[in-house]
Hints:
This protein has helices at 26-46, 130-135, 180-185, 208-226; strands at residues 79-83, 90-97, 100-110, 123-128, 141-144, 148-157, 172-179, 190-195, 202-206. It is an alpha+beta fold. Strand 8 (190-195) and strand 9 form a beta hairpin.
Amino acid sequence: MTRSGRVGGARAPGRPLDSATQQDTPSTRVRALVMCAALTGLVACASPSIERTPPALEGTVLPLPTRADSSVTRTEPPIVQVRQFPSSAMVSVVGWTSDETAYGLRAEVSRTGDLVGGYRRGDHRLYLTPVYVSDMGGFSHAMLPPGALLRHMGASRDYDACGYGDSCSPRETIGIGIPDSVLRTHRDSLVVMFRRSSASDWTITLRRELIDAYLGAVDSVTAALRRK
């Protein structure tokens, strides 16, 4: 009788070995490693790449760089001085800002509590230094937009410019009269225009905080003098 297979591990022609009957030889191990590497490469190529955020940055809000805002201007409080002497017939109130010392406001109050400075009773004096006026090109007349003319009050010398506190007002000034009602009824900063005959005009701005602090001191002085 003819046998179709072999005993003791022999196989019939054309029949694959079962996994249980495969021999662990060096060649089979090499083939297995090659197939494993090939399958691993296929899986890696087929899988989409996923970007991962580094663990140190996950859930962290990074602070934005900061810098000083140049549009914001920080200013010191207005400077207001009350100047009085026992032998003087008037009490002076002077106000200006530390960032612009070339101009400011001044009032002369009598011992009876009346505002008497200027050519017109009740006017306040807007003062400017002659150097500042010259640097701006001078002026022929001053006005409030849109066209109210202001009185020229001439030049003046202040011998007590540095007699109070650590801050000095200008010693020599040129004056422009501003009615009391204008300072009190104008709710915003006050712009004063200076006209020139042969060149462009120029302006100055009296900030509202300066006007309020200055008028507060004037009112306190007039009230105190009227009670005497």
